Here is the input.
Amino acid sequence: MKFLKINPADNVAVALVALSTGEVMRVENVDITINADIPMGHKFALTDFAEKDNVIKYGYAIGHARQAIKQGDWVNETNIKTNLEGLLDYEYKPQDVSLDIPNRNLTFKGYKRANGNAGVRNELWIVPTVGCVNGTINSLAEKLRAETQSKGVDAIVAYPHNYGCSQLGDDHENTRKILRDMIQHPNAGGVLVVGLGCENNQVKAFKELLGDFDETRIKFMETQKVEDEYEEGMDLLREIYEVVSKDVRVDIPLSELKVGLKCGGSDGLSGITANPLLGVFSDFLIAQGGISVLTEVPEMFGAETILMNRCVNKNMFDRTVLLINDFKEYFAKNNQPIYENPSPGNKAGGISTLEEKSLGCTQKCGKSLVKDVLMYGEQIKTKGLNLLSAPGNDLVAATALASSGCQLVLFTTGRGTPFGTFVPTMKISTNTPLYERKNGWIDFNAGTIVENELIEQANERFIDYVISVASGELVNNEKKNYREIAIFKTGVTL
Here is the structure.
């Protein structure tokens, strides 16, 4: 198969392989001659378009023709334009959702924490309250790894960041919330929190934000208040390590799994292979009693009504409208276009407008009802599908998903990326060539869905793989120790 018409209403098709000028594609008993070389993942016209005619993909308009387009032409960002503009008014039109997916009573091998939460890793983390001590925490982590060879724990990791001082308002609170969420995360068996002493994010106030905690697993050090921060830090780390290294994996119901849904570096196959696969998996996990979280609010623009009409009630609809409009107003406040075109990598992969990207992106959350809406830095409290306020930036959004309580981030990509956040960040490729070329980045190939595998079969493989990762199998970002955090910043720096 060389092309795919996704929806019967579509007036473009997607090239599943590179097509050459002059090739003839037979589409629903019509022979269409390709008028230009068309890369894999890109679109070609199934009919003639006049200027301003809507271009339909996934059954929805993804923009309109900037100019006349002939049948067989390459359709891309140069000849179509978004239909989106300004703030919109929304009407709640609830959709009846009935998913008949049995509970299979599956389990994974994880770590049961004293507060009832479950972790998929048992790591020891060093987290700074402020960027001034980044060098210190990196040295401490290196010393402890060398001393212990990380035996008895899954990893020993320092997580430097640039913030914790010279911030005001929401930026200051965002930093505090994300760091709090990290320290409370069940993938951390223990944490050493390292402060400087004079920063805005004072240790005493931060402890109050943290609330009750296990003092054998979470310890604090203010470097200005100790004579030798390396000696003191190593003593505290050894105490934490002694406790954490005794933790063991036990059987935990799959209902305790929380996954974040993320995509980056999309291509024209994202909405055909990897994103729909995550949607099928998300619905399956929710049917088992688990949780999935969708974020990247700007990449909901153009497909937001699909999510709004799946809200469980009017209150959740109103909160989703607020989620969308708050982000639009953030763009407008900074004098930026709300509906900016996709990134250069997205365009090169075949994504031409924001609607097209959003209609592909939102498929990651399947067809389940929206049960809750989370603000940035807020932690999960409701079973089922959650929406989370965060930008599309890969590092910021992945950090936000992990901070909400997700033990894994499932990350689809058609272009490839090596990064990982502070939980396992599993890369799912949209196409086989990427998987074969970058198998040191990509963990699972969804490209087989347009080759010889049904999506249901791919999902069974994916379920098994997710369970194995939740039970301890490392993904590529962990193998290479690519782990970092990025905190959302919106205001001034003093």
Summary: The chain has a mean pLDDT of 96.
